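Q: Second attempt. The first request was missing the SMILES, so the protein and zinc ion are both included now.
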Amino acid sequence: MDSIPLEDRSSLVLNIQYRNLLGLVMKLTRSAQNVLDYLVSILPSVRPGRPETFKTYGEVHRALGLPGIPRELVNQGLGTLADAVSEAGLPGITGLVVTQEELVPGKGYFSLYGRQPDDFQWWEDEIKKVIAFDWSPYSLTAKPATSLKPSSKTPVASDGKKLERVETTTYRILRETLLARRVKELHKYECQICGETIELVDGRRYAEAHHIQPLGSPHNGPDELGNIICVCPNHHAMLDYFSIPLKYNEIITHADHEINDEYISYHNKEHQSRKS
Ligand SMILES: [Zn+2]
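A: Got both inputs this time. The predicted holo structure:
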């Protein structure tokens, strides 16, 4: 790799990460994403080789408010997550979920990675990788601030600063794109204000994603699902220019996408201030 120029090298790294990222995000069901978000949230208190700092099936099951018994967690997102993570070549984060009796992961965890169920050294090393890894691009509920760190897996070139900057920017754009896409897919590319969609010649649909409290100066809105609305191009322009107010009760909603009314208030204040 040393002979590859920096720019090429960073784009190579990004290509690999981009593919992994897309692979993971696209395959995760809502329940698997919830398990991932939860496991990412406990990482600060996890110590490799000390499974008492991990979470039992029961603890995860309870924390996520899932119905049924803890054993069902495997079919309530954990299994899908384990498959997606291993397929994307990411560190085995599902090894943080352990049985209450023995404090070890399910046998499926080891077999997924072609390991024997007593290969605890591998497990410990894997958890070290999990902790060192930057999960923010994969955990869609993570705050934007933490998503700006480049992956710790990233090779550091002699001009490491530059590579880091390239990656940071790309991650931010990539994240924005993924969030926008997720919102549009949830709403089947139908405008959340008028219900219209645009049918393309090849059968696909077209819509746009708008940040209700816009990103960047002077608005400095956050890049999160609750601040994004799926709209047709007409309504997008109207929102961009704050030419119409947003009425919370008239917006078409989806159970997996809750718009935060704080951002709606922000929009409406901007709309008011432009009137008269
Ligand atoms: Zn519309």
